[in-house]
Fold these 2 entries.
Entry 1:
Amino acid sequence: MSINDIFKQPIKVVNTGLASFQTNLETAGAESIQVNWRPPAEVSKESILLMEQFRERTDRANAEAMRIILSGKPVLIGMGKALDYIPGMRGDLILHSGSPVTWDRMCGPTRGAIMGALIYEGLAGSIEEAEVLAASGKISFAPCHEHASVGPMAGIISASMPVFIIQNETYGNLAYCTLNEGLGKVLRYGAFSPEVIEKLKWMEQVMYPILKTAIEKLGKIDLRNIISQALHMGDEVHNRNRAATSLFYRIITPAIVETCENKPDAIKVLNFINGNDHFFLNLSMPASKACLDAARDIPWSSIAVVMARNGTDFGVQLAGTGDQWFTGKSPVPDALFFPGYTKEDANPDIGDSAITETLGLGGFAIAAAPAIAQFVGGTAQDAVRYTLDMYQITAAENPLFQIPSLNFRGAPAGIDIRKVIEKNITPFIDTGVAHKNPGVGQVGAGVLSAPIEPFRKAYEGLAKTMKAG
Amino acid sequence: MSINDIFKQPIKVVNTGLASFQTNLETAGAESIQVNWRPPAEVSKESILLMEQFRERTDRANAEAMRIILSGKPVLIGMGKALDYIPGMRGDLILHSGSPVTWDRMCGPTRGAIMGALIYEGLAGSIEEAEVLAASGKISFAPCHEHASVGPMAGIISASMPVFIIQNETYGNLAYCTLNEGLGKVLRYGAFSPEVIEKLKWMEQVMYPILKTAIEKLGKIDLRNIISQALHMGDEVHNRNRAATSLFYRIITPAIVETCENKPDAIKVLNFINGNDHFFLNLSMPASKACLDAARDIPWSSIAVVMARNGTDFGVQLAGTGDQWFTGKSPVPDALFFPGYTKEDANPDIGDSAITETLGLGGFAIAAAPAIAQFVGGTAQDAVRYTLDMYQITAAENPLFQIPSLNFRGAPAGIDIRKVIEKNITPFIDTGVAHKNPGVGQVGAGVLSAPIEPFRKAYEGLAKTMKAG
């Protein structure tokens, strides 16, 4: 066939370049498909060779990591004060989300929430005092993740705060998380006004004892089962927790009624949970953490066990690289902003909540929760596409966490950072957006793709351990 | 181009015949699409001509019917005893599902449930006595639908039974339904053993006063809002009501806690609702009924306002034909049977629950609840296909009841029986399956396409009113 004959035929185009090429073809009426291909992310030649040399060994380590991660069974077993339960907690220690960060590099919302926590603890009498104390060196800061904990947004945990205690029943390890404060002015978004502190005090003094007693009455609550059902009910348990919160509420309510003698307080607690469809987020996060922590310290494994953001840096930890953090600049999310706010107001992405994506929930399971895509201006098909993309960078599918619209296919689980680098596709994350200044709070909600930098560094870091043998 | 040239080209086939033709083409590797086309159902030439002559007039009447149906706002406003509230209710009257049917033509489950109700009411001391009394002529029978009511499966309502009172706030009309009994041996599936009667008595004496008081405390509960949310959460509110039941539970619980002084009873009621994900079915049914009843008696309209089965006949009523019933033989559903049962054991399709499909929920919205298709051996894609088919026979889309996987398209609403006949596609219905013998109970759950016969008769019946002018 001569070249002229070819152009007499209808042409079908396979486009591996920019998606905008395809758009032009479509406009012109040509039949085309878009291949989602990008050149690999830039990493050193030496790392690539090491990764190739030890590919099978890494594959075996990853299989072991995934066996552990997917067989985890997170259950809520109780509540307690942070000081009494979180390993290494102290009165002068404040835990925050993401990787380690010094006061001078902390973002506005984290600073705001720390100042609020110092007032809440009675360590400072005013915001001015709190700011001086925080910068004085008398207060230590550490990542939640280094204390078996997670926190949404600023993720602040101080000594007196009540926390959920989650156990991975299969492996015995524990994880902790504070109670979700609800919407409006809240500490996790960096707000610290008197109403914020007052609500935290009510949660500590009224809500916590009631919930604690109800959980004791029940013995335990199976969080894996709730998450599993919630994915069949429109949640991805990161930015949408309406179903999971409802199912948790159904379980806890009879126990609250049975054990709480103060009826008005019981009703207030019920209405507090009812008024906050995100209540379950502070359970889906430590549930994810408990599953992933069990797979730490598996040499050679390229599976991510943490993705977390402190509002300045985006941090990653791998099963195969111990406690090492690999970080890069945290991006500002694409978001739908509340009236009066724009991207100019937005803080870079923040919070430990990306632990849900690390397990294969949240943005990875967004096809199960198309309402989230719709909320930020996308379609249900976009949501499916995001989830399908995530299968390209994951090591397994989770048979217990299913995507109904993909005919109940298991959600993509276990980020293999080799695939992230080779395919140059980074994890897709659902997120809330905080104002960049302390004391303001939430200004929007959105989605983002993780930056490539921390994954590049993680790739090099893992290669280094291979070289060392 | 000569005929020989055509066969040198890749062939694309449009198949309007049996779907199995396409399967063969696919097997052979040929590109083909299936047109879902069937010859129209057989109706008289005269009716077709009348329907054609008055097409625009019917279109206008249907537009009015759909305006009324889609603007209905069903709210739960209270509870009461059937005798005190249901119009025309009497101590010697038993209401049943579907169209009118005499004792001698009644199916096993309906007979079983009627005998159970006579014992429950204290009108008979044993099943033998109940059977004699039921056949004696001293007890009257009438369809729920003719008394502003609906009932699932056998749909039995007797004088002492407590009922939900639903008001269509927009138009003021009321609808009634009993409380859902849960799973296992239950009256609605024709069971009548002492445990069945005992549970009904507990529901009347303990649960009803508690729920009634809680609803009074709340004033009203917006059912349209709950259904709207539930469709975003994996329910179609016929065979799947987990989300709707959860949302209802979240609303009613604080009011139960506040108003009920007997804690153990309050807990029993909470656990009863918790233990029965179908609890909301007995609210989605009268909610649908309240919306559709407002559109009765609109001359010329070909919109169905009732589809209901008494276990012997499948009945249809239209907006344009007053109280007339159009009936045909009720089919046995395709179902997944519980262990030990087969299609041989199954009663023909039964219950008023197809009122949900009549409004555009249930099988019409099954794409929102793919778990139902999966349960009966289908795929999520099957569920989407069923819903897409229903757009072909409906007059409108309901902007408040959306299908997430169809990018939040409004559910197909308002069955235009002209389209049913012209396209020869009958409504798709989700259903439970009762044993054909009295006293056994549920043996499975499944799906079915309505029989064409009642729609053919309805078409002829509507044409007759056109002829009369």
Entry 2:
Amino acid sequence: MTPEEFRAYGRQVVDWIADYYERIESFPVLSQVAPGEIRAALPVDPPEQGEPFADVLADLDRVILPGITHWQHPSFFAFFPANASGPAILGDLLASGLGVQGMLWATSPAATELETHVMDWLATLLGLPGRFRSDGMGGGVIQHTASDAALVALLAALHRTSGGSTEHVGIAAGRYAVYTSGQTHSSVEKACRVAGLGGDALRKIEVDPVTLAARPEHLRELIQRDVAAGITPVLVVASVGATGTGAVDPVRELATIAREHGAWVHVDAAWAGVATVAPELRWLNDGVDLADSYCTNPHKWLLTNFDCDAFWVADRAALIGALSILPEYLRNSATESGAVIDYRDWHVPLGRRFRALKLWAVIRWYGAEGLRAHIRSHVSLAQEFASWVAADERFELVAPHPLALVTFRLRDGDDATRALMERVNASGELYLTHTVVNDNVALRMSIGSPLTERRHVAAAWEKLSGETEGHVSAE
Amino acid sequence: MTPEEFRAYGRQVVDWIADYYERIESFPVLSQVAPGEIRAALPVDPPEQGEPFADVLADLDRVILPGITHWQHPSFFAFFPANASGPAILGDLLASGLGVQGMLWATSPAATELETHVMDWLATLLGLPGRFRSDGMGGGVIQHTASDAALVALLAALHRTSGGSTEHVGIAAGRYAVYTSGQTHSSVEKACRVAGLGGDALRKIEVDPVTLAARPEHLRELIQRDVAAGITPVLVVASVGATGTGAVDPVRELATIAREHGAWVHVDAAWAGVATVAPELRWLNDGVDLADSYCTNPHKWLLTNFDCDAFWVADRAALIGALSILPEYLRNSATESGAVIDYRDWHVPLGRRFRALKLWAVIRWYGAEGLRAHIRSHVSLAQEFASWVAADERFELVAPHPLALVTFRLRDGDDATRALMERVNASGELYLTHTVVNDNVALRMSIGSPLTERRHVAAAWEKLSGETEGHVSAE
């Protein structure tokens, strides 16, 4: 494709995307296709000759769009959001255009230095402790996802605990234990599996039945039991905004106990962490000054297209110690000078995309002010939604909701709650998902699309309410 | 950013990229900045108020471009290529615009089904064995990088070898061994570290001093020694186009030995595998029908922007067995029906970008014919370059060069060879990197940029030759 062709087709694609956002409310939020339907509309074999770009765009409308669940739709309330935004899309487009691979500082110094710089910017914006900044022993790096962050946190923890031996001699099964709450993301269990500890090494910290936050006393019990059995506590993962209900663990208390036993403390704030761009939500950072690593995802709720997991460590040497291998073909004078960061040693992959560009574009376009407004609008809408739920006797709130996730259920029980979800999702008017809280099915109203306004949240409530039998009360 | 603003700035970005490709030859290939220079040009603090998008574009020219090593430059001959192309950039832009997260089939059926479909297309294009196709027990998935592919291959191997126990009980250090050649990418050692086997579990298979391919007899010896010591051979990684010199291992012989001992066979063809789009290069696939998994990177040499590692397994159940965890909040009727693929269970991350769109756009725009022409032009240029090296008595070729990587050195020795590399790279006229072959420093002329023409390769040779002392012979 020549630059002139790129100019022409590029405009068409930009227009297609702009048009998509203008008509996004015309689509059912949840795709209505059956398994196999998309593949059946595609040719069995790849083309022998090249095809016009217009055909790709036409098939996008004809074949692909019916199979899209519209994550950017203002009535997408499922899972956690996966924010896209204009500046992020364009920042990522610039990264694609430049096509650089920043595995080493030398392979594009700007890709490394801009990343270090915007990670410091983001630490400032979120009010994170100084120990995570690059001017001391710490530093930030963009990981693919929070699952990858949990994995490398575990590897760094093993490196530190073992004095640098596990990466050479391997894991002795049954020797190490990892702790996190039952509310926490399955990523921690996956990290235990991947890192060779096995899922059995994971201890689930009991949660308070009301706050759903991990109980520090139970962590202490678990650790004491392990230590007595000769098992080494290697990692404690505290959640700030756990996946099920958005529970916030008492990080300071958990970290204090972990540190008494030399365990690494990782704080997974994948969804909620970015909310601390608003100073009134900085209570979420309490205790993070005691953490060894921390992650939050601008690709969830901070307007930066997937993938962009922001991960910081207080001691980058442990991370690099766990992951650095230097084959001859990657040796270069900048690396040997010790004056630069080579981000390939900060994660599992060798190659890396210039992801800092999109985060840079987002922070500059919105400014701190714009980012705060984005978070505040969703928090405010969620509080209003929760007030409607609370006022209706057919429903009940099942967890605290200080941010933009409201977890609730029908008093009629699990079957009715699940059936309600299926009815509203099948309507295509909105999409929300469920979890289980204290053994009961609960729905999750997760507000986070940049396009969501009060009218969308009100319509969602009207739909949920209208699809529910029984008396509407207390208005 | 409103759709109308996006339309306007999107055009500016598209034009910026088209302009970049029109002027790309005006930049030094290797960035000439010193450590810290890029950061020093950036504001210390993030902006409080949002800034105009034009300022981002201006800083791209002012601050970022000087710090770019231009991977798409026609005289970039370093490492392996990281191909970008118009249709890939636009396919990825569409993925950013749609902003869907395809962790589950239900979260965008088209993202999953198009991926399965184009991975079958690619298997067809590369002449891969039918067992990797999705209509049997196997199937393909896009991984982030070949390092990630090596890691999940190891996890699947451990699952199979242990009868599904390692993911629960963990790794017993010293119990398992992994085999690959000393020429093979450090990703295999990294995978051993990450998966808890430790680097010590890696056995390096000796290579033939001429072909630099792994010696099957040595693999047999290593395995026999391990088995006698009670160590289980879990994985053999064969390379097709190893990183140092592009060596091609005898896959059929290695795989035959591995299978006798129940070890999983992974073929890492990250760079070279895509070359088999040209039928005359299908000899590279010999023995792949005996492999359990295989990967090649369209993001290296098949015109598809990073990241796009194409990974196939012959038995997807082993991969899913190693990685699947189903928390309540991800349960859904499509998953429970068993009729769909949930790609979150095929890799470490949970979230995933709609990467199939760019591969689809590339295959459709170029067609099989265009992809073959792309590969053939680089192979042909490399053969011509090698003939120039061979004809000059100051130089010597140090490894076979059947594809587009030519490894060579100065007969004057390591210091002279390294100094030559440093001189030509500092000129900014071209960029190439080095490796060590049979204990000698060698330069790697890796031809793979879509923009590289004969004149660029000829100019590179002229520069290398002109910067070398001594008599120019045999023309």
